[in-house]
Design brief:
The complex is a heterodimer.
Chain A (H helix, E strand, L loop, with lengths): L1 H11 L2 H19 L4 H13 L5 H9 L5 H14 L12 H11 L3 H23 L12 H32 L1 H4 L3 H4 L3 H4 L2 H30 L16 E4 L3 E4 L8 H29 L3 H21 L5 H10 L3 H6 L17 H26 L4
Helix pairs in contact in A: 1-12, 2-8, 2-12, 6-7, 8-12, 8-13, 8-14, 12-13, 13-14, 13-17, 14-15
Chain B lengths: L1 H10 L2 H24 L7 H15 L5 H25 L1 H5 L5 H9 L5 H9 L8 H28 L4 H13 L8 H26 L1 H8 L2 H5 L3 H4 L1 H29 L26 H28 L4 H23 L8 H6 L5 H25 L2
The chains are: A mainly alpha, B mainly alpha.
Amino acid sequence: MFIYWLELRKLLSSAAAWGFLAVCLLFNLFIIGNSGNGYADYIGAVSKETGVVLGESFRDRLSFLTTDGGREAQYLEWLKLETHGVTDVFEGYETGYIGERYIAAAGATGYFAQAMRDKYAALQKVVDGKAKRDESLSLYFAGATYARHQLLFKSLTGWLTTEGALIAALVALLSAGYEQICQTGDVVYSTRKGRRIMLPKLAASLTAGLGAYAILALLTLALYFGMNEYGEVWRSNVSSLFNYRVDWIAGARPFVTWHSFSVLTYLLAVLGVGAGGVLCFSLMAFGIGMWVRNSYIAFLLFLAANAAMVAVPGLMPQTWTAGMAVRYFSMLTSVWLWLKHALWFTDGDMDILWAHFETLGLGVSLAALTAFCVLAGIRFGKRDLT
Amino acid sequence: MRIVLHEMRKIWNLKIVLVLTLLCALYYSIFLRFYIEYFPGGHSKTEEVEYGIELIKRYGPTLEEDEYAEFVRETREKLKAEMEAHIRSNPVFAAAGIYSFEDYERVHAKYDRTEAEEKAVWTLLREEGDFVRFKLQALEFIEERYHDYTEFTLPRLMSEAANGWEKDRFAAIKENEEYRNIMVWWVYDNTLDYALRLAVLAVLAVLALVSPLVVSDRARKVHLLQYSAKEGRRILRKQLVAVLLSAFLLTTLLLAVFGAIYGTNGTWPFWNSGLTSFLNHITFWFDITYGQYVLLYVGFLYVLCLGAAALAFVLSRFSRNLVTLILKLIPLFTVLVAICHLVFINPFGFENALYIMTGVPGMEPVVCGLVFIAGVASALWLIRREKRRT
């Protein structure tokens, strides 16, 4: 434990890492600063009075609202228009066609086609449940929902995961190569006990990586929610009738999540998976750092390994069963989970074969990368470092 | 020079070169392959590009009124004959009550087609019909654009001009008849997308290749030995020369390899075509040809890569180890990627982001030049500072 704290202190004393964190924050501030949406802020403010469940009582409360004229009067008018006579989008909504379109577009056959059909059959049950609970009759940000949802759950959380992953990977490489950098490796690694230092180093780098992600997320989201009014919208359901998603194959369709999520719980869940992703990248970088002693080449290999995971599915002929298997299984790797971050907790898209792909992928990635780290550690323990 | 060559040998470290080659191959597969394998990208884009090439081969880089009329007349007749041959030979048309070109066009324009009519219409839009209806569609597009440009497009653009510069430019286009240039939008757009992504790759590769030189020496404390001699004090200057030469070489190599790959797209016939064209959607500040655009791009890329290399050299000097160097390189790379987007998307066009942001045309070379000056000036300052340090 003592060594763990010492290793952690080494990482925390890196001025460049703190500087990088500050640059990331500045970048996030730039994104947030360019995302003002007066209408969404107005909805956030009035939601405190109207509540977020669309219905009789919402309409009554909305009708009592008054404005001083100007822009707010226009916003109120828009809100009344958008929420007037809304119906539950999940009532009678069929999901089977989505799966069929994906199957046709991908040319999937056999097990893959069946798995896709099974996924959408399961989603149909979820949709029926949502219809029963009138989940779509939720305000969210009314007409500004799509823009706000994309900003928070695609742009901002996407960048947070990217920045967290980068810093976690670099901190892991710094930790793995620290003795090499300080030229203390010959002394430290000359004993069996010294070689075991990799375990506290790994624990320290995982802690530092997760810590950096947590600090980034905390500060960025504090800035975001400080600058954008959410009011009662926190309690809105993300599967609101105003929320939707668009893909080239299935077109525009409601935003359906496997579980019932409010904006708050969805944000927490996304941050949780983001943290899991950061762990994966940290493990991967640490493992590579143990194999390759030069931290610079290790980082380039880290990039190459992730790029390879992105490139391989596109290079495999999709007419082969093996090609299709590679494509669907690739989606469970950490880099693909990161690329598909805007679809976490939903049915995903054409490339996603299984329900809860983010949880499944995270589990598979964490297990595989932990095994990789263990193997790298065993090899490092026996390796001739002269 | 001998020391510079030795420093270059250190830069072109075999392991880094191998990993970089792998990264470039993966980058190509993810970001560039699409623009080669899927160019022009379906129908009727393919036909538009083919007609563009045919027009250039027949009439040169501009299309005069009489040439246009001749091309449209001849091509239309040819296509009509081709379509009628298909209609005569394939029973699917008779089943839909289509016996001539006119019948087909009538059915094609219908919204509520029967199943037989649908089948007949799609026959000429598929390979079995040699995509002949798409060829006609491309011809109609060329006709429409040629007529509309002076009649509707140019007057509308002139009325929407944001300032006097834009108005003057549109007037010049009209007076010099620059719109007669044959430049197919899909060719320009594809080249632009490929060039932008190649620029990002070049910047990434240059940063990755040249950055470790100084920091590696300092990590091994070689500089302490070097600085004890007068010649050794000049080592940073020689390292800067080596870094700039390596950046130049790598940029040349990348341009040669990925340029050669792009050459397989067959866009060379457009080399002497002006970019401001009735077939292009972008207006440019001066009468620039496709070939000149490519040469300017190459020039800008060299300037940007050399500036990036010099900046990386400075950051490398201020890094204690390779990981802290990477932590500094990532923000630099992000800024350079943003600059690539500003410079290489519609350069010298009215839609260029730099022009939209500043309102001043021709900022692209200024920005590239500033990156270069900032890099080289800071590197020179660093060398002077280092020479005097105790």
